[in-house]
Amino acid sequence: MKLRHPYKYYLFLFRDSKYYLPTIYSTIILACILLIVFVIYPQIQNFLNINAQVNQLTSQIATLKNNINNISGVNDSDLQSNFDLVSRAVPANKDFSGAIQDVSSVAIQSNVILNNFTVVVGDYSSTSGIAGASSDQNFTLNINIRGSSSGIINFLSKLKNSLPLMSVQSITISQSQAIIALQVYYVPYHQKNVDLISTNLSLNPTDQSTLNQIANWNTNNIVPVVSTNSKGNLPTFSSN
Amino acid sequence: MKNEINFLPKQLVRQDSLSKSVKWLRVVALLFVFVVPVVSIVIFLLTFFSPLTQYQITEKNLIASSQGLSNKIAKMQFIIDRTRNATKFIASRNLYDQVIQSIYAQTGSDVSIISLYIKDNKISIFASSSSLLSLKTFETNLKNITLVHLTDFQTTSLANSGGEGNYTLNIMAKIQ
To answer: Which of A71, A127, A157, B156 has the smallest set of CB atoms within 10 Å of its CB?
Structure first.
């Protein structure tokens, strides 16, 4: 007699076999392993990825909020004053007139006579705006002053505390006369996008101290003095 | 030989070990059957309820609100950049005024500095006096200046110029 469904015969045979249960269990384990490899592992990876993104976003949002709070909290006039102050301390271009004006002003205050000066103009094919160019530059201002030794020393001390920022490169003193080579700093302005998400837009304590120092130096100069708070410090940019 | 010691028939022994294996397989299979879906569901829920989208929206809103502050932001960035440059410049400046001040402070009433030259942290002093002892004291005092550190002293000349009682001293040193 021919069976109607021969596979049933094999099925019953297999069910009765001692390998039936081990095969079923093995199949389940294999299926689960496949699920782990092809479903759960990618799920875990995706979850970790999302978690990393969340952490990054949390930090970015914190920085962004902090920056917005800082910026919103800064008084417009204080900001403008600080802007003018740093522009004067470190100009964006070769500010010959500013430097000469400062030197002559310091000379008057120190009771020395500014005999003459020479500006070493340098290369006018400035690298300003060129990506990768040296960001800070300087030009040389040679001056000749006449006065007593104490007057010359006083002149050098006052010059160090004046704006724009200068540095004495060389000095020759003889017979109540000093020939000084001054290095005047400037930094060309490079337009750049401000990244509020990753950059903390506030001054660190060292820079804040520099800003206060510059503001004090500026008191003898032309630009109006930056308003200070009760402690004599400039308004800080940090919100907390 | 060893098989002869076992009193159970071979088939029974094999069946017993097989049933043990089946038990283990069942345990493992059950464990997998429960653990895999649970883990999968948990991870799905964690992913589904992740605050990522909400954070992305918050960030977008914050960026949008910062657009109105662009002028202030640009100024602030400018101030920060310039102040950093200023800090760098101030730190790198020479202290020549202090050097000169210290040197002049060492000249007694009998010593006068005829000329002084400073460049690249090298200093050359040309002093004169009517007394050799005063010049020697001046030279010694220079070596003991504390405000700035002068090193590598070289006395290039000590001469009697312009007749009796007029001595000149030429010293070179490095500023550190």
So the answer is: B156
